[in-house]
Amino acid sequence: MKRKTIEVLFVEELTDNYDCEIRRKRALPKMARAGTHEKLRDAFQKHLHETDHHVLRLKHFFQAFDKSVRCRKCEAIVGLIKQADEIVSDSKGRPTINAALIRAAQKVEHNNYENASYGCLAEWVDQLRK
Question: What CA dihedral angle connects 100, 117, 21 and 122, to 10 degrees?
Fold first, then answer.
């Protein structure tokens, strides 16, 4: 019974993370277009490729557990991206746009929510392998 419970939690977290990565994939090109500094735009494009890799890895985990690939709406990332959109919108056309983009990206990408989610997945994979 314990194994089934961990597996259910794992799949739920997987669907949550998949939604997060898909939403990041949609947000990153918009952020890249809003930037006025070439290196910043390039950094967003590079991160988009990394996000594509994350999506593929998550799909692999779905397949490994014989589950269909699906999203479960992650309200946390929805809120973070909404806030990022507002930060960028408030700075459009201003000299601070690049700083605002960096601020928004940091909030979306470097948050404890994402770290905790992937940390749980890693631990549960170990548990499921036993």
Answer: 130
12 contact partners, CB below 8 Å, separation of at least 6: 72
What's the pLDDT tens digit per position in 110-128? Answer: 777 788 888 888 888 888 8
Beta-carbon neighbour count of residue 42 at 10 Å? Answer: 12
CB-based burial label for 111 (10 Å; 0-12, 13-18, 19+): middle
* Architecture of domain 2-129 in this structure: Up-down Bundle (1.20)
Question: Each residue of 51-76: pLDDT tens digit?
Answer: 999 999 999 999 988 999 998 999 98
In this structure, which amino acid lies at residue 61? Answer: F
pTM of the model: 0.86
